[in-house]
Design the sequence.
C-alpha cells in the first residue's frame, strides 16, 4: 500500500468514525472541506451502529461490508451469486461504485431475474462497477477510470454532487472499508 493512500485513508476512516460517534448518524451532509469524510444525501441512511455503519464498514473488506449494510443487500446477493465475494474481499486499494437496492429496483424484475440467473453477464456488470485503484472525492470531478470488466467509466461533478457516466448519482461517497473506497450510487451501471 503506498504511503500517500495510507495518509489519505486513515484520516477518512477516523473522520467517519468520529462523525458516526459524535452525531449518531450523518443526517447533515458532510461538506466538501471534510477531507475524505463520507458525503452526500444518502449518508443519512447508513446505520448509526453495528457492522453496516461507517465504523463497522471500515473494519471489513468491501464485499463483507456491503453485506452488512441494509441499503446494499441486493448488491451483496448479486456479488455472492456471481462468486465474486473472495475476489473483492481479497483485493487491495480498489474502488467500488455500489448500487443501492433502489438502483436495482429500477431494473424491470424480469430483466433483473434474467441477469441474476446468467453468471457471465452478472459478473460483467458487477466488475464494471469496480476500479483497481483508489478513487476518492477529489478524483470524481473529471475522472475516467478503467474498470475490472475492461471498459471505462467517467465521473463528473463538484462540491458534494457527482455523476458516474452521466446517469448515476453518487448518493454517499468516500465510504471506507478495510480494502476499498466505496461510492454508493443510485443507478446500476451497464457496460457498453
Sequence:
Amino acid at each position: 500500500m503506498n504511503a500517500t493512500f495510507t495518509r489519505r485513508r486513515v484520516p477518512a476512516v477516523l473522520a467517519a468514525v468520529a462523525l458516526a460517534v459524535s452525531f449518531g448518524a450523518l443526517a447533515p451532509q458532510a461538506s466538501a472541506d471534510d477531507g475524505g469524510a463520507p458525503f452526500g444525501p444518502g449518508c443519512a441512511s447508513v446505520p448509526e451502529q453495528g457492522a453496516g455503519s461507517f465504523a463497522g464498514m471500515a473494519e471489513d473488506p468491501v464485499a463483507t461490508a456491503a453485506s452488512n449494510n441494509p441499503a446494499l443487500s441486493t448488491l451483496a446477493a448479486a456479488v455472492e451469486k456471481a462468486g465474486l465475494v473472495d475476489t473483492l474481499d481479497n483485493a487491495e486499494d480498489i474502488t467500488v461504485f455500489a448500487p443501492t437496492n433502489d438502483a436495482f429496483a429500477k431494473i424491470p424484475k424480469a430483466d433483473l431475474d434474467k441477469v441474476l440467473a446468467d453468471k457471465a453477464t452478472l459478473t460483467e456488470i458487477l466488475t464494471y462497477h469496480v476500479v483497481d485503484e483508489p478513487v476518492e472525492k477529489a478524483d470524481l470531478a473529471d475522472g475516467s477510470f478503467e474498470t475490472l470488466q475492461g471498459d471505462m467509466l467517467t465521473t463528473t461533478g463538484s462540491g458534494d454532487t457527482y455523476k458516474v457516466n452521466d446517469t448515476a448519482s453518487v448518493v454517499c461517497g468516500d465510504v471506507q472499508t478495510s480494502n476499498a473506497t466505496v461510492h454508493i450510487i443510485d443507478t446500476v451501471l451497464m457496460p457498453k
Observations:
- Residues 3-27+36-185 form a domain with the FAS1 domain fold (CATH 2.30.180.10).
- The longest helix spans residues 3-23.
